[in-house]
Design a protein that fits this description.
The complex is a heterodimer of chains A (313) and B (257).
Chain A (H helix, E strand, L loop, with lengths): L1 E12 L3 E12 L3 E5 L6 H8 L7 E6 L2 E2 L4 H6 L1 E4 L11 H11 L4 H14 L15 H13 L5 E5 L7 H16 L3 E5 L3 H7 L2 E6 L2 E7 H6 L3 E8 L12 E6 L2 E7 L5 H9 L4 E6 L3 H23 L1
Helix pairs in contact in A: 3-4, 3-5
Chain B lengths: L1 H22 L1 H4 L1 H22 L1 E2 L2 E2 H31 L3 H6 L4 H27 L10 H25 L5 H15 L12 H7 L3 H14 L6 H25 L6
Antiparallel strand pairs in B: 1-2
The chains are: A alpha/beta (313), B mainly alpha (257).
Chain lengths: 313, 257
Amino acid sequence: MKALDISGLRKVYKGNVEALKGIDLVVKEGDFFALLGPNGAGKSTTIGIVSSLVNQTDGEVKVCGFDLASQKEAAKACIGLVPQEFNFNQFETVEQIVLNQAGYYGVPRGLAKERAQKYLTQLDLWEKRGARARELSGGMKRRLMIARALMHEPRVLILDEPTAGVDIEIRRSMWTFLKEINQQGITIILTTHYLEEAEMLCRNIAIIDKGRIVENTTMKSLLAKLSLETFILDLGENSAVPELKGFEYRQVDSHTLEVDVEKTEGLNPVFNQLSQQGIQVMSMRNKSNRLEELFVRLVESGRNQQEQTSNAK
Amino acid sequence: MQNKNNWVALTTIWIKECTRFLRIWVQTLVPPAITMSLYFVIFGSLIGNRIGQMDGFSYMEFIVPGLIMMSIITNAYANVSSSFFSAKFQRNVEELLVAPVPTWIIIAGYVGGGVARAVLIGIIVTIVSLFFVDVQIHHFGIITITLLLTASLFATAGLINAVFAKTFDDISVVPTFVLTPLTYLGGVFYSLSLLPEFWQWVSKANPIVYMVNGFRYGFLGVSDVNIEVALALLVGFNVLLFGVAYYLLDTGKGIRS
């Protein structure tokens, strides 16, 4: 069963700005799916169309098998949206906001109250149920938007950068919560700028750039494409200038060495050579997020391909 | 199932709207009572006594229905225009757009909220008027129908204004430059029969004349216009504006990109 089935989706904004150039995307039911891309790539437009906040120009969108154009109400009922920007009435209380949202989906008041208690408790907001939205901290507001999106118990939960601007502790507790509800069967589609977040949570991933999908695969096979990693080695005091045969390396300063290591080679030869030269390694870390490098590479290669295609035309 | 869901959605929007104007009662319910008291004191008691009778009634009795109608019009309009624009401004209108709420339910919920405030204001102003004059009722049914149709008409107009509005200034332009002049020239304070024939004819192009006179007929049994025509026009304008509001919301004008 497909939770989301997008085909040939196009969006042209006023001024002839083509934000989506005919994308195809399938998300299976139960998946934890990441939609990544740089700013202005078309992520929010895609999510906006799927959640009926943006009018599409062309193409077809099906949510849980329901066509968004001809079976609008049924398709909408399947989706819970956690938008990027806070979009609740700042003067309403936490409880009013979630109860109203349930009402819009036809959830009777009694059942809505039960669910409000359940989700506000799970997201550590029950004590704040009487507080007005404007009185909440940024992290609380993010969690309120998740609780609100769950009030009608959707089959697909779409989160547009849900952890933007929240501290690491809250971010990790949100990850745990999202993993739990995904295990209960809710399909989750996530956009994020934190690639670590996508790597940690998602099983499948699509990368979008300039309105086109440039990669759509499993997280595992994406990470398998990484053949080279850069390690930063902190060297001991009075270390000699190192020399590493068979490796690309750079000495950043007298105590710091950067070494590029192929996945197949392993780190032992590096340590053996340094040890033979009497150089002590005090600590070691990855230079940057592996996924981040791959992401940049994929986006750049996608842009090169597009340029070549347009030049050929 | 869908009907039940729609009913829950409709009552949710309506209760939310009523809660909003009751929460800010100092801004929504008190000012009309004070303004109308001043109208009754100044135009009714002080100046009215020197004016004498109009259409066979004391001036105070004559202006009461028009003043109640004036409050109903401005409050029905203001309630929906400010509430819906505020929902656009704070982006919480998106809560409704993503939900499976049919467009007509959204309109009915917001307009229902505006009508509720207008009815409450109508009752408050009527109670205030009782301190100045004995209000008589000629036809309660006409009063009720005129009140509901007028309130829903201007609530829908307020919704349309809010759809187009981009700033808070935009929701005050129509009340200031269109509604207020039309209301003051709509026969609230005078009978059209006092005007020269040409201006009587011009006045009858003002839709508010029909609402004020329909309402006055319900209270006093006198009207400058045919009551059937007045009610038919009210129904016609309601249908027309509902159609416009439906088209705008369904196509996402001003609320979807």
